[in-house]
Design a protein that fits this description.
The protein is of the alpha+beta class and about 170 residues long. It has helices spanning about 10-20, 60-70, 95-105, 140-150, and strands spanning about 1-5, 5, 25-30, 35-40, 45, 50-55, 70-80, 85-95, 120-135, 160-165.
């Protein structure tokens, strides 16, 4: 496995590329207690500063948890492309209508009563540290290399892995 730790702008770009490609993440809040509170969330965008954005209901448990302790953990996984991204960060909640209007899409009507729903908030996550696993090739080639490695006993070089420090 190729190891590549990325920093600053390179790390932000890697987080943006992977978070937007994978889209859905499990957002874990209430990190100091078990069980963690985890919910699936759809990534709305990753901005130029590397902040990951979501829409959320102001009355949700995760919003309440963020208000109490803004540290969270995002777990992205796409088994079809074999991409994985693990992000630790701090969250901020906003009700800025300009941001909500920018992030809101027609599919969000399933969760809200239109973009003017008074319960909509936007959550921005500032990554503090992240880890990634990204295949060097497409899934078929990666699986073949893993199979050859299993037969020969040699560890295949199939993934780029590394730490991201924005």
């Amino acid at each position: 496995m190729g190891r590549e730790n990325l920093y600053n702008d390179d790390a932000k770009k890697k987080i943006k590329d992977m978070a937007e490609d994978i889209d859905f993440t499990m957002m874990a809040t209430n990190l100091k207690e078990t069980p963690l509170h985890m919910v699936p969330m759809s990534t709305k965008k990753v901005d130029d500063q590397g902040h990951i954005w979501f829409l959320s209901n102001k009355n949700s448990t995760h919003n309440q948890n963020i208000t109490t302790d803004n540290h969270l953990h995002l777990i992205y996984a796409d088994k079809s492309s074999m991409q994985f991204l693990n992000v630790y960060g701090t969250a901020a909640i906003t009700t800025d209508r300009k941001i909500i209007d920018e992030l809101y899409g027609k599919t969000d009507d399933a969760w809200f009563d239109g973009k003017d729903d008074p319960n909509i908030t936007a959550i921005s996550v500032k990554p503090t540290e992240a880890f990634y696993w990204d295949p060097k090739n497409n899934k078929l080639i990666t699986l073949v290399k893993m199979g050859v490695g299993a037969v020969t006993g040699n560890q295949p070089d199939t993934m780029d892995i590394g730490k991201l420090k924005p």
